[in-house]
Design a protein that fits this description.
The chain is built from eleven helices and five strands; from the N terminus they run βαβαβαβαβααααααα. It has 257 residues and is of the alpha/beta class.
């Protein structure tokens, strides 16, 4: 697997797919290998061509995004592509279903083009690293860090369509990469997240707070305590942003192979 990323675009909206194709075709490492307007074409294409990343809309004729994710699991593919959902659909249950079926990322339209590009590269590089031998002990786990964080967030009731979900995921990832961030939440962590999403640190802080409050208001405290491994919170005991990020990062670090 080289560094060039073969990308397939799947969307029945001709204007959307043209704009996306024009943008991605100009980016380093990206090679747009095909354009499909329905899910059936998508399955036929990935069955006959090498594709690293599929940018997939959810609502399409003949076969929708969920159908593509379901059927692709049973295809005899030597290297199943990473599926990146790019859709205007904000239905929470549909987002959760897509993630359960293996979607590696879900981004709501309208989207930030530069962020989309960076996520495609990140997905590819994480998968490439996961398939490389690890000190002679076999292949690394295929499940990426993004997948683990997404799975946990959905379990505890944080919906994938809100901004705080994405800010929290970035925060947890950053703390797992550099634990010193947890002691510099306001001065360094929020500004770094804000920089990556082209927003302000104060908006990052508020959005993360909102995401945590949504989880608590949904009453999924048992799931939250299950993730952390012990009874730490009650319905009226919400953690601070920093506590939540630190606990998530710690728990996920313990699960790493």
């Amino acid at each position: 697997m080289g560094n060039e990323i073969n990308v397939l675009l799947v969307d029945d909206n001709k204007n959307s797919i043209t704009v996306l194709n024009d943008f991605l075709s100009k980016q380093p490492r990206i090679k747009v290998v095909g354009l499909c307007e329905d899910g059936q074409q998508c399955l036929e294409f990935i069955n006959n061509n090498h594709v690293d990343v599929v940018i997939l809309d959810m609502i399409m004729p003949k076969l929708d995004g969920i159908g593509v994710l379901e059927k692709s699991q049973y295809m005899n593919l030597g290297n199943r592509p990473s599926f990146f959902i790019l859709s205007s659909l904000r239905n929470e249950s549909m987002i959760a279903k897509a993630c359960e079926l293996g979607a590696r990322y879900y981004m709501i339209k309208p989207y930030d083009s530069e962020l989309l590009y960076s996520r495609i590269v990140q997905l590819f590089d994480e998968k490439k690293a996961s398939l490389e031998p690890d000190k002679g002990y076999g292949a690394k786990s295929f499940t990426s860090l993004d997948e683990k964080i997404t799975s946990v967030f959905l379990m505890v009731g944080i919906p994938a369509h809100i901004k705080g979900f994405h800010y929290l995921r970035e925060g947890v990832r950053l703390v797992m990469e550099d634990s010193s961030y947890i002691n510099k939440i306001t001065k360094e962590l929020y500004p770094e997240i804000a920089k990556r999403f082209e927003t302000t640190p104060s908006k990052v802080e508020r959005a993360i707070r909102h995401a945590i409050e949504v989880a608590w208001n949904r009453g999924k405290i048992e799931n939250i305590n299950h993730v952390f491994g012990y009874q730490i919170y009650g319905k009226n005991d919400k953690p601070t942003n920093g506590e939540f990020i630190a606990l998530m990062a710690d728990r996920l670090s313990m699960q790493k192979v």
